[in-house]
Design goal:
nine-stranded parallel beta sheet, 16% strand, alpha/beta
């Protein structure tokens, strides 16, 4: 699916619910379930290959997994590219060009960064330069600018989110991703502050999809949540099997 068609999925009245995947097998399962689009989970991919989250996985290994995912399905794939795996905007743009050539139609690109297992909010100028560099070299990629004001517990999270949203919109972002924005009031104010489609992260505190759609939210993702659930189930199965070897039913 092209960048244009993927963009249109963010303009429909119904919420675009992404199937977050981590390998070709999970991508095939999600595609067969009927998701309109898939999004990779950087956390899940890293963990599945033995790395911690936060750009610890080498880029070439990430690109290999992404290519296998894209080749395994016809469903459009967007990639969680964290903060770009480089502080150099042109290096980030080079990586994104590679993703585009693989058939990836979108990326998440964030203004936060994991530092010593804690997330730190970065300066707007850094992400702005990356967005501009990508758009100057790769036109057909949907950039979902992730704003980490709520995840880093900024003291004025809502106001800072709206401020950053305007900056990233002017830089050429196609969408906004604001994880952990949860209250209806905050969500409505963010939606009304920008022309860009808003992507939220599923939490127990978030309103139901139908309500989110009424508020103007266009996209919902769940990151590594399904992967983490399956890992927990797998852990229990292995412990149970060692104690009492028998095939699970």
């Amino acid at each position: 699916m092209s960048y244009t068609k993927f963009t249109k999925l963010h303009q429909q009245s119904n919420l675009l619910i992404l199937g977050n995947v981590w390998d070709a097998h999970s991508a095939k399962i999600a595609a067969s379930a009927g998701f309109q689009a898939l999004g990779t989970s950087s956390h899940a991919i890293a963990n599945s290959l033995g790395y911690a989250d936060g750009e610890q996985i080498p880029v070439n290994e990430l690109l290999f997994v992404v290519e296998r995912i894209v080749k395994s399905v016809k469903t459009p794939v967007s990639v969680d590219f964290e903060s770009g795996y480089s502080d150099n905007p042109f290096e980030v743009a080079k990586y994104v060009t590679q993703l585009s050539e693989m058939g990836v139609v979108g990326i998440n690109l964030e203004d936060g960064k994991v530092v010593k297992s804690g997330r730190k909010l970065g300066k707007t100028g850094i992400l702005t330069e990356k967005i501009e560099a990508i758009k100057s070299s790769t036109k057909n990629i949907f950039i979902n600018a992730r704003i980490d004001t709520f995840t880093t517990k900024h003291e004025n999270a809502l106001e800072e989110t709206i401020k950053r949203a305007k900056i990233y919109e002017e830089a050429g972002a196609d969408g906004l991703f604001v994880p952990l924005a949860e209250s209806k009031t905050d969500i409505e104010k963010i939606v009304n502050s920008t022309r860009l489609p808003l992507n939220l992260f599923l939490t127990d505190k978030l309103a139901k999809p139908a309500v989110l759609a009424e508020l103007g939210v266009k996209r919902l993702s769940h990151g590594a949540k399904i992967y983490e659930y399956l890992v927990a189930q797998n852990t229990k199965l292995f412990h149970d099997f060692l104690a009492n070897p028998k095939l699970p039913k």
